[in-house]
Amino acid sequence: MYLLYVDESGDTGLTNSPSRYFVLSGLVIHELRWQAVLDHLIAFRRRMKGAFALKLREEIHASELIHHPGELARIHKNNRLTILRAHADAIAAAPDTSIINVIVDKDGKPQDYDVFEMAWKVLLHRFHDTIGYRNFAGPRNADERAMIFPDRTDVARLDRLLRKLRKYNQVPHKPGAPYTGASRNAPLTSIIEDPNYRDSVHSYFIQAVDTTAWLLYQHVAPSTYMKKKSAQNYFARLGPVLCRAIAPKDPLGIVRL
Q1: What are the φ/ψ torsions at residue 150 (nearest 5 degrees)?
Q2: What is the span of the domain harbouring residue 222?
Q3: CATH number of the domain where residue 168 is located
Q4: What pTM was estimated for this model as a whole?
Q5: How far apart are CA 167 and CA 188, in angstroms?
């Protein structure tokens, strides 16, 4: 079974939104590698405790760590940025881990464009397809299934969407495919159960994908501070674990909507 941990950056609003982009990032690991990846992330946190006195129970929330650190203001801002860079490197070195990404550019979208639904639908569809094509890192059972572990989001809406997609997921036919009609139903049968929501404070996996999503957002729309530090390039450090199979024409494997 594959486990997909998901977090977002930006917001889904189209009117008077402070963000041009909405990012969904997913960290994919096989159940047989869950403990190994957890041990890897714990080892990273212990290094950060030794180097910067970041306690293991303290959350790495990327945006807040840089711009609104709260109690973590005791750590110098340059060191907080170093923690994020080291976090990206730790994620990139995690055993048999894959990262998938969807980004919505809201600029020019019609007012009836549903940013939340489109981003999640594409992420889940590509996740399901990649399982079917056996393109994720790590073990592969003969007939894999998957579960979703998002950070807290619009719970009722996401539950409804996933339940719908398990029964009805209309997708266009590929050119030259042996089908008639403009589209076909491709239900997401590999994804079982409703999403299992996690509080990022208590999950190193959600914290890892929070860093991933925020670094992707900073890659396309960096803040003044991130540009000053050339930290908009940190997303590229995740290269070893980016699953380019979900968007093979994009150099970073990002699905861009």
Answers
A1: -85, 160
A2: 2-256
A3: 3.30.420.10
A4: 0.94
A5: 7
C-alpha–C-alpha distance, residues 140 and 131, integer Å: 9
- Residue whose token pair is 């690991």: 29
Contact 202, 60 (CB under 8 A): no
Total domain count, the chain:
1
Q: DSSP labels for 196-237?
A: --B-GGG-HHHHHHHHHHHHHHHHHS--HHHHHTTGGGGGGG
Residue 166 CB coordination number (10 Å): 17
Tokens of 142: 């003969």
Type of residue at 231:
A
* Sign, CA torsion 110/217/157/190: positive
**Angle at which helices 115-132 and 155-165 cross, to 10°:** 40
Beta pairing partners, 101: 25, 254
What amino acid is encoded at 125 in this protein? H
Q: pLDDT 10s digit of each residue in the chain, 257 long? A: 999 999 999 999 998 899 999 999 999 999 999 999 999 999 999 999 999 999 999 999 999 999 999 999 999 999 999 999 999 999 999 999 999 999 999 999 999 999 999 999 999 999 999 999 999 999 988 899 999 999 988 899 999 999 999 998 877 766 555 555 677 888 999 999 999 999 999 999 999 999 999 999 999 999 999 999 999 999 999 999 999 999 999 999 999 99
Residue 5 tokens, joined: 């941990």
Q: 173 phi and psi, to 5 degrees?
A: -70, 145
Provide the terminal-to-terminal Cα distance of the chain, rounded to the nearest Å. Answer: 28
Q: Using an 8 Å Cβ cutoff, are 193 and 162 in contact?
A: no
Q: Are 23 and 108 in contact (CB under 8 A)?
A: no
